[in-house]
Amino acid sequence: MSNQQIIEQPQASILTLLSDFGDRDVYVGVMKGVIAQINPALTVIDLTHHILPQNILAARFCLLNAYPYFPVGTVHVAVVDPGVGGTRRAIALQLAQGFLVGPDNGIFSGVLSQSPAVVAVELTNSQYWRVSSPSKTFHGRDIFASVGAHLANGVPIKQLGKEIDPTTLLTLDIAECSQSEASAMGCIQYIDRFGNPVTNIPGSFVHGKSWCVQIAGLTIPGREAYSDVNVGDAIALVGSHGWVEIAINKGNAQSQLQIQLKSAVVVYHDN
């Protein structure tokens, strides 16, 4: 019997939303209205709506780091969708711990690198959309919010559309982390609101070691806390998300060190 046949689909009580819609316009509120029309008792949690416009890479990171903190069966609706209305697929994915709903543009590739899809479907069944002729510019309202709410109500994922091969899902163009005994090579996968560039090198690589980071011609010492260096000095450390990050004590490392997304980075053990 395959995994797809034995994994049950629990009814969820939580649905999360992530987008680049901000809070000035009514877009997020409208999505919540669509969800409430289907299940007004559903708990809806905002992960963030302040992803920079069209920044799929940032959305990937935020969802990756939020996903483990939610109960089994949680439905995650993520909408950073510059290809809305075009040829990109609208999808829903079932994982061992929950569900993902959104565009097939790489936004889910971070979560999928840690927890592969058990079932993947393209959202072709308009019965579960808000309307059968959705807006070309707002699939978050007309498809994803509605589908997410129906999933949370216990609608089997395979009823939402045609099943697709999970290996065909799009991934983002980001350098993978490679490790040797003495060094790890990776890149900057995210920059937070404090200007701290976050690498895709796991903190486990430097645990119990003396280490440093090299990036953009700079060598930055690895320490445990921001206060371990003087105000204004650069530091590398393991953030609460579990990845090696770069910071400036009470400063903005991105602007002061001119570090950008996808910049190459190397971590060296000093011993």
Task: Walk me through the structure.
There is one protein chain. The protein is α+β, with helices and mostly antiparallel strands and 271 residues long. Helices cover 19% and strands 29% of the residues. It contains 6 helices and 15 strands. The strands form 2 sheets. Strands 8, 9, 10, 11, 12, 13, 14 and 15 form an 8-stranded antiparallel sheet that branches. The chain has a 7-stranded mixed sheet with strand order 2-1-3-5-4-6-7. Helix 2 (27-38) packs parallel to helix 5 (139-152).
Q: Briefly, what is this?
A:
Keywords: S-adenosyl-L-methionine. Helices cover 19% and strands 29% of the residues.
User: What is the CA-based Rg, rounded?
Assistant: 20 Å
Helix fraction, binned, reads 10-25%
**β-sheet strand percentage:** 25-35%
What is the average of the pLDDT values? 93
- What's the total count of β strands? 15
Question: SSE order in H/E notation?
Answer: HEHEHEEEHEHEEEEEEEEHE
Q: How many angstroms separate the termini?
A: 49 Å
Oligomer: single chain
Please state the structural category: alpha+beta
Number of helices: 6
Low-pLDDT segments, ≥5 res = 1-7
3D shape: elongated
Largest sheet: 8 strands, antiparallel
Pfam families: SAM_HAT_C, SAM_HAT_N
InterPro entries: SAM_HAT_C (IPR046470), SAM_HAT_N (IPR046469), SAM_OH_AdoTrfase (IPR002747), SAM_OH_AdoTrfase_C_sf (IPR023227), SAM_OH_AdoTrfase_N_sf (IPR023228)
Organism: Plectonema radiosum NIES-515
Family: Belongs to the SAM hydrolase / SAM-dependent halogenase family.
